[in-house]
Amino acid sequence: MAATSSSSASPVAGPSQPSVGAQQVGLPPLSDLFARSSKRARLLFHIDDEYDSDNFGDISALEPAKIHLASKISSEYADAKVLPAAILAQQQAAAGPMRPGATNASSAAAVRASKRRGDETHLSRLIDQMDGGASSLTTSVGPSAPSSSSQALTIRSNGHSTGAAATSSSSPMSSALALHRGGSSGLLSQALIQKKEMANRKAKPAYHPNWKLSRVISGHLGWVRCVAVEPDNKWFATGAGDRMIKIWDLASGELKLSLTGHISTVRGIAVSARHPYLFSAGEDRVIKCWDLETNRVIRQYRGHLSGIYSLALHPTLDVVVTGGRDSSVRVWDMRTRAAIHTLTGHRGTVASVACQDSEPQIISGSMDATVKLWDLAAGKSITTLTHHKKSVRALAIHPTQYTFASGSAGGNNIKTWRCPEGTLVNNMAHDTIVNTLSVNADGVLFSGGDDGSLKFFDYATGVPFQVAEDVPQPGSLDAEAGVFCSTFDQTGTRLITGGADKTIKIYKEV
Hints:
Elements: H1 2-25, H2 30-45, H3 63-77, H4 85-93, H5 106-118, H6 122-133, H7 146-153, H8 164-168, H9 172-177, H10 187-203, E1 211-218, E2 224-229, E3 235-240, E4 244-249, E5 255-260, E6 266-271, E7 277-282, E8 286-291, E9 296-302, E10 308-313, E11 319-324, E12 328-333, E13 339-344, E14 350-355, E15 362-366, E16 371-375, E17 380-385, E18 394-397, E19 403-407, E20 414-418, E21 423-428, E22 434-439, E23 444-449, E24 453-458, E25 464-469, E26 483-488, E27 494-499, E28 503-509
Antiparallel strand pairs: 1-28, 2-3, 3-4, 4-5, 6-7, 7-8, 8-9, 10-11, 11-12, 12-13, 14-15, 15-16, 16-17, 18-19, 19-20, 20-21, 22-23, 23-24, 24-25, 26-27, 27-28
Helix pairs in contact: 3-7
């Protein structure tokens, strides 16, 4: 019986011993491995602001994310770690002085910047941690050496470094990269961070309603070359190739007055906001001052050697500025009829001039593909802008901002500039010869082409929001669809254009 019981117990005890050993030497639970793997995958491929590094995983799980971020920074910003001196100087100048009388927006911008700096995200905290942990990384990322990768990680500092490696680094690259939060200048890192924000802003322009043709006015017997709206917004004047100046009622479109006196095409016209005067200039080389109370010419200004193509009035001084085929810009005193300055320097016909009350007070565009900014007091050129490739036929000064636009022919043929130094702000494209530009206070930039094409842009971003075609008057040739002049009324809600079909068209917002 004992043998039987022992023999029967031995097969039971035999397989039980390996089962105990398997429980002692078995694999770890899969749940821990799965959780750790998911943490690493999330850190590598899905870093976002909602991730809480304090309550999710240990510190060792951040190392793959640091390596991934260092590789991304090195590949995207390797060529932009140190900006050229010229760009740094322009960024330090920022937006330049404000237009006199305008509200100072620098304080508001500083408050917005400080608020942005105060918004901590997980990505920013991760970069801050890399400042102190860069020296502990021993694996080189990509083709770069470990030393260069650690320098590439030092791009963010809160005014004090958290790691010994960051404080002891004295290389120019690391010092240039450690500028973001509270750094000495912050220009480089701000430019890199704002790159994506600027792209988003360009892709999302402000909403503007479309414009539609409201009225067509006929009356001229030649191409309508210039138009101006009077300050009270009750009437507007036009000049044309029939040597006539016609004054129209803005509300009804009826002809109120016709002025004769020029013996050639009228190319420039302006209404004074300080005097009851209307100024006109034409290809007969004469500037005429019309008294709107008697409807007669009271002064004439002579001195141009060839036809006059453009005319502008200074908003605060008794000064008339003209430009013409003699490649000069002439400044006239309204009262004495004397030429105060003859501004020379252009090598081609001056096709457009504009005036403003702050520097540069005179801006001119020429057929030599340049734009010149002039010092009115000294009578000399301040800056020559050579970005255009073909003749500059149109200029437009923004009514509220300290900027202006210029138009020519070619690729990116419409450009906006920041005063007073003439810094290029934006490029826009209108695939034709741009004859006229107009901008209103709502940020709508209108461009009229020589082929009759009309294009409306958002002034801030340069994104076009409407493209249209000028319809010639019945009986006109298709080639007579060109737009030569344009202006917004004083409210900015009506657009007046003149073209080669001898008509005046008024557009309104839909």
